[in-house]
Amino acid sequence: MPINPYQPPAASNPLERRGDTDSAAFSSSLDELLGDKPIDFSGAADADDLRRFLKKDGDIGYVFPIAMIVSLALFMLVTIGIGGNQWIPIGLYASLLLGILITVSTPAYRRSVFRNNQPNWQAPIRGQFHRHGLTLHSDNATTTFRWNGLLECIAVPELVVVRLAMPNYKTVMFNPSMLKHLDGWHQLEKTILLWQSCYAKDGTGDRWIKVRSTMRSPNRARTVPLPADAVSFSGPLTTQDRMNVDSRKFRRGRPWRAHAIRISLIVSIGGLVYEMIRMVWPSSDTVKVIVIGYAVVGIFWFLKYRSHHKRRPRLLHHLAGHLSSESIVTDLDVVNESVKWKGYEIIQQTDHHITLGRTDDSQWLHLKSEMFANHQAWQDALTLIARNIPKT
Fold this sequence. Notes:
Blueprint: H1 21-34, E1 39-43, H2 47-56, H3 63-79, H4 87-104, H5 107-117, E2 125-130, E3 133-137, E4 141-146, E5 150-156, E6 159-164, E7 171-174, H6 182-199, H7 207-216, E8 231-238, H8 239-244, H9 256-280, H10 284-311, E9 315-323, E10 327-331, E11 335-340, E12 344-349, E13 353-358, E14 364-368, H11 375-388
Antiparallel strand pairs: 1-2, 2-3, 3-4, 4-11, 5-6, 6-7, 8-9, 9-10, 10-11, 12-13, 13-14
Helix pairs in contact: 1-6, 3-4, 4-9
């Protein structure tokens, strides 16, 4: 019987092995709700789903209303003429800032940003919700996200939204038409509410911090069994590795609205600071010294920041997995993925590392020689890659 590369070992329940009583209770309740029968889904999200999601996800917090009130007050100073001419420039910059804040809260802007960050959000998906988590299938890959690895689950009438940590904080939307039976939809809604009661209740902390901590741990146990012919790898992936990857193919440009907002923010905030300095210190020479001083400090800080990150790269996650004759499997504990060889292409290669890019999306896999047990294992991995991925 062939090994299922994305099914956890039967002796190890990924929810209970951490000794978390809430997770154990969630696992027990989930067994009663789902048992061994998964909830199958197949289909695609539509524009109405996105509209409902953005409406539900439209919380703008406290910063927006506070900034809006302050900007409105300054704007009124201009319109009613209080304070004389010296207030007019400040009011104009504040009006620009107010316009920016209103713009970024509009559905059109938020929809544009979402579509840019999630270009395949309307692509058909298929998979299952099951006792271990969420599994997504594609022509070349199978990805399983553990329940304790989901960042957020949202349920609104006729819509369920799940945020995934990998890849790139992906957002997946489900509607009733994607399930074969209405009973399955009701089951899914109950499952999401159960997840929220365990992982999203008050006091549970930031989900991303917990998930990232798990993926960064070098001491975590493998959750994917190794086939007999597998070449395993394990090692850290850092921001420096990401910088070394020629990711021009995977780099997404920002929508024009985002560029316009960024430029407007710089102009409005810079103008406000300049005019306030000019009000406090009317002397033109003093203003010049202060502005030049701020500019020098800003440039120095930026250069130091860039230099620091080059000297001391930040850990992204501890990558583990294996290569076999059939596929490449990555094991990050909270998310496991098995990708067929035809789903990869070689992006760049040196004596000490190789980067593989997905043919169907913007993901990439960066393997380094030090991730393997010895030089022979590294050579075996390169041989497997050369045998299964034709050079372009």
